[in-house]
Design a protein that fits this description.
CATH class: Mainly Beta
CATH topology: Jelly Rolls
CATH superfamily: Acetamidase/Formamidase-like domains
Radius of gyration: 18 Å
Number of strands: 20
Order of helices and strands: EEEEEEEEEEEEEEEEEEEEHH
Length: about 280
């Protein structure tokens, strides 16, 4: 099993990033990750502003997968997510959905005990570790790790968990996979710009798929197939995700266009991942 330590982190997903490790298709790799604050907030007297935007959302990597070429699909099976014993949350004015309501900077350190986040003496929340940032390199541009897009990135989809499989585009040779921004638990929306941010380790199996077509990024969980789309506003993102799923159903199930639309209107759940990044998901 290969291992990439947290010291190998990028803040942009870019074809210019030099791979820190090369593996064959079918390999298992462990990514050790920093939290979204680069592990720089350790006490409740350290506000969000003490970190700075240039250190937000580091992603460990990139990983070069041998044999992957532009136009291929990278299959990422999430075998395990291990998290540390405490996480961090912050708020600040003008950030997130409640940015006009929040009056100051607040930091909260939240311990993890017996599979629960101890929010306070009365509120204990079952954890569900997930990956906030995971993606491949864009073809030509450099995209900050805090921004989601067709390459993946900061999608903050709470379904990207242990046991799920994520399909990502290969835009450059090797794919250049990076990931980070783990959350011990996070709700749809991530309304104050963070979930329970936490360092950890992610074990994945990476495989190259050739000669296939999928609407990417696409996620497979125990009971759902999920298309993930990001755009400047939620209406646009919702429409794009829906069109991608509709196209998938028409192509893979052989349904007529109208019939596929009817099916989606019955069993297709349209949900929000996050509403706080530069693009909504």
């Amino acid at each position: 099993m290969e291992y990439i330590s947290k010291e190998h982190a990028v803040l942009k997903m870019s074809p210019k990033n030099s791979p820190v490790k090369r593996v064959e298709s079918g390999s298992t790799v462990v990514f050790e990750t920093l939290d979204c604050f680069s592990n720089l907030i350790q006490r409740e007297d350290q506000p969000f502003s003490s970190v700075g935007w240039d250190k937000i959302n580091p992603a460990t990597g990139p990983l070069y997968v041998e044999g992957s070429e532009r136009g291929d699909i990278l299959k990422v099976e999430i075998i395990d997510i291990e998290i540390e014993k405490k996480g961090v949350m912050t708020t600040a004015p003008n950030l997130g959905v409640l940015g006009d309501i929040v009056t100051g900077e607040t930091t909260k350190i939240i311990p993890i005990q017996d599979g629960k986040a101890i929010f306070n003496d009365e509120i204990h929340i079952p954890i569900k570790p997930m990956i906030g940032v995971i993606g491949t390199s864009p073809e030509t541009e450099e995209i900050p790790t805090g921004t989601p897009g067709a390459h993946g990135g900061n999608m903050d989809c709470k379904k990207i968990i242990k046991g799920s499989t994520l399909y990502l585009p290969v835009n450059v040779p090797g794919a250049l996979l990076s990931m980070g921004d783990l959350h011990a638990v996070m709700a749809d929306g991530e309304i104050v710009i963070c979930g329970l941010e936490i360092p950890g380790k992610v074990t994945v199996k990476v495989s190259v798929i050739k000669d296939n077509s999928l609407p990417l990024p696409m996620l497979q969980s125990d009971d759902k197939i999920i298309t993930i789309a990001s755009a400047k506003d939620l209406d646009e993102a919702a429409k794009l995700a829906t069109i991608q799923m509709h196209t998938f159903i028409v192509e893979k199930l052989g349904l007529e266009v109208d019939e596929a639309g009817m099916l989606l209107s019955l069993v297709g759940d349209l949900k929000i991942c996050q509403v706080v990044d530069p693009l909504m998901t």
